[in-house]
Amino acid sequence: MLLIHCPYCEAERPELEFANAGEAHIVRPKDMSQMSDEDFEAMFFIRDNPKGINLERWRHVHGCGRFFNAIRSTVTDKFLKTYKAGEPRPSGDEIAELMK
Amino acid sequence: MKPSSTQPFRIAKRGALSAAREVQFTFDGRSYAGLEGETLASALLANGVHLMGRSFKYHRPRGVMAAGVEEPNALVGITRDNARHTPNVRASVQELYDGLTATSQNRFPTLNFDLGAFNSLMSTFFPAGFYYKTFKWPRSAWDKVYEPFIRRAAGLGTAPSEADPDRYANRFAHCDVLVIGGGASGMMAAKTAVDRGQSVILCDENPTLGGWLLSDTDVTIDGQPGVQWAATMATGLAAHDNVRLLTRTTGFGYFQQNMVALAERLTDHLATPGPALPRERLWQVRAKRVVLAQGAIERHMVFPDNDRPGIVLAGAAQTWLNRYGVSVGKRVGVFTACDTAYQAAFDLAEEGVDVPLIADTRPQVAEDILAQAEEFGIEIITDAQMTGTTGRLRMNSMIVNGDREEEVDALITSAGWTPSLHLYSQSRGKPQWDAKTQRFVPGQSPQDCVTVGACNGATDLQTALHEAALAVGGKPADFAIADDVSIAGGMIGETRMPQKRGKAFVDFQNDVTAKDIKLAVREGMHSIEHVKRYTTNGMATDQGKLSNMHGLAIAAEMLDKRIPEVGLTTFRAPYTPTTFGTFVAQATGPLFDPERRTPIDGWAEENGAVFEPVSLWRRAWYFPQAGEDMREAVDRECQTVRKTAGIFDASTLGKIEVVGPDAAAFMDIIYTNGWSKLKPGRAKYGIMLREDGFIYDDGVVGKLSDTRFHVTTTTGGAPRVLNHMEDYLQTEFPDMRVWLTSTSEQWATIAVQGPKACEIIEPLVTGQKLDNESFPHMSVAECKVCGVDARLFRISFTGELGFEINVPADYGRTVWEAVWTRAKPLGACVYGTEAMHVLRAEKGYIIVGQDTDGTVTPHDAGLSWAIAKAKPDFVGKRGLERPDLKAPGRRQLVGLKTTDPAIVLEEGAQIVDDPEQPTPMKMLGFVTSSYWSGSLGHSIAMALIEGGRDRIGEKLYVPVPDAEPIEVEITGTVFWDESGERIHG
Q1: Which residues of chain A have pLDDT under 70?
Q2: Number of Cβ pairs < 8 A linking chain A and chain B
Q3: Which CATH number fits domain A3-99: 3.30.70.890, 3.30.2270.10, 3.40.50.880, 3.10.450.50?
Q4: Domain boundaries, given as residue ranges, for chain A
């Protein structure tokens, strides 16, 4: 069972308290009515599903209830970092630094 | 019962248990005597019994080989009663208690005479991959002949005939250092850690700490015999507050971030377990550092006929002798490729056991060993090969180099020691091949995990103790160690065989021979993972603890590759077989899936309700009166509601309080409907979509004020709806000042429905007039009911005049009883969920999840009116514009009437236009809801049908297996009171 650091509780808690909530940093456009069908498809249906580093959302559902983002490797399951919702997407350099 | 034997192979005054109590036990119905606390295998050996099982495939007679968990052959059933029968217990680890009842397995009719042994004669016809080659054709035989055949042959042991009555426990623990394995190095690591102020958990699968020191009577540490040194260490550790010692506890699974699962066995060794004791306990330990001190497992020699009862591992013979005082035979031969077997042979000879011959594959043996052998008068043949053995149920002789036959009743063998990499590998560590010593040893640890001692490749005690101290940051101390025999050396793979006669077993339990592995390679299996699956090498309950390295070496030789190029099969949890009880712990019976009950549940039970599960809830299904069946009860309940009134426990409805200055704006985003302009005191039926435009949930929402909404959801939908709302609030609209609170459990909800609903509740309500002008349909008010703060809705899920009273849950039953006291004399009834379903279906009200399935839009469901088209945005608005969702021919919700009014359709039944068409037929849609309507005198149904609303009036058909298709007519969804007048009273 993984230990996950909740950036709101500022504590490591067991995986049992959390729920995965899919890929992170998918922005719901302000004016969705203007979206083309292709853009909608890309936004709503298409996911990266990478082997390796994945930016994903988690919810501390049996804890503080907050959604947050995480950098996790889908190969090792290892969490490199968790951060609050709304904080910017980590740069490639930052991720590379964390992987060292 | 008198013991039938006087333990002729027991050696008095040898072993730690020599003073133990004598107890009686039975094996296959025969009574024996043994010592309390020794293993079943050792007790049987003391009585001269080697034959303990039959192999899986060939049913060959097999004896016990090992003294630990690696034992492949001696699997027995242990029976306490019909419910407490444990199959496949290794006799080598089962502790003996008074009255223990054991039976052998995989034989018919008896262990001595097994008809299944016919397979052994036919073995030429059962080569590796036999199943894959044979059970291919004809196709028609797959399920009629082959599957029953394979099923009968498959499986080991028998399951108990009754449910498990025992209790299983579960604990979580944290520590600085978790040590797996309580041998010399494990105890050293634990002691060093605790001396440095760290908290320690030490577990060992055996009942006593000490590991190999318990079996080695020669070694001394600082002048003390090893076994005494171990006892002193164990006592010292036990005295420490900061140490938890767990014996009879197997570390069986190593997971992420140093989480290790341990299975503790608390009662399997007791004659009469205390009723308060759990049988087993699962420990989920999170350790800052894990020290693996699992030790090493001795390998057997792979030579022709190496599986006769009487052939055992040398280390096992040493354990039985030195711990339990049991000799494996009267005249014992030795076949070895390393030094440790000599120690076992000398220990036996020291007790007067005849050891005539040691066959050693090595060209040379150390001088001091030769000298010792000479002292005992033991002949040694070096550069030796064993070419066979004789005997059937017990070995009679060993044959060396083809011509030298020596009569023996037991043979001890050793091909060397394999470091136990199981948990290291489970921790995702990559074993490294050490070409010099021909072993896999641990490489780097991907977690904070240190391997020490024999499982790390140490071959002597001093090195093991050094590693242990270093592992937890301590300073290694030098001990004065004497008479320590190195476990280095040995061989892997098949011994050289001049004559190709007899089966040389690699995997005993699954009957895999060296020849099978070679055949698999010849037939194209070039990866060890393929060889393993093709031959089933290492796939038995012992998971190849003896066989994996030999199998690998044979395959590598055939492939002419280095061993690491062929690869090592993956080690997986559990390390040893672990019961389901351990995993499940208390989550059985009513705790398997906890049941939620409403505040009114007790009243329903007292009043004869029949219940049904709805998501996690238990709900009153119907309330049969004397002599009524379900249909009669539901008919009466429905018709009483329509004629008079009924009361219904709707407390399971999901409820969410949406509060804050931006509450209305938030509701506008989440629901398709408009909420900003709704007046406080009014309620509305709301639909919630996912972003893709499909219906996600629905429910009535009351607007209590401009900043407060009382939202209801479907019974099963409450948690996901709240999650959905929180998701949008936190991540898409974090600036909105809105707070969401689940109140499902806080409110009890009592629905009062029917023409007399107002008359029933009016005297109970204060603070709100109930007439049509003051409180019209779809109103909500905060008032008092029976003097209790209440939220009263004027609302209907039946099509009749109706109210829903919400009161704090603690008052639920009191208010319910007060309402019932009013309702009963007026001729009203209590109704359950089935009547609720019929009543709503008569009105065409949908249930999300029953009449919708995640691919239904509001337009499909006939709910276009609930979409506020003028709103600039709501979740699902863009999704609804997708071309497929606007395309013609989508399935639409319609009503169905059967031509024969008595037929009630099956929910889920498919619908076609021409029942005579060839199969596969074109399915137009399916039935979503179907009931008998007593009020209407005919059945009613709803269905999703392609272009359904344009087909109203058409006749379609529901095909039925082996019967005439049922003719149905498509109708609108409203069957009762189409004009909707009754709702206004």
Answers
A1: none
A2: 53
A3: 3.30.2270.10
A4: 3-99
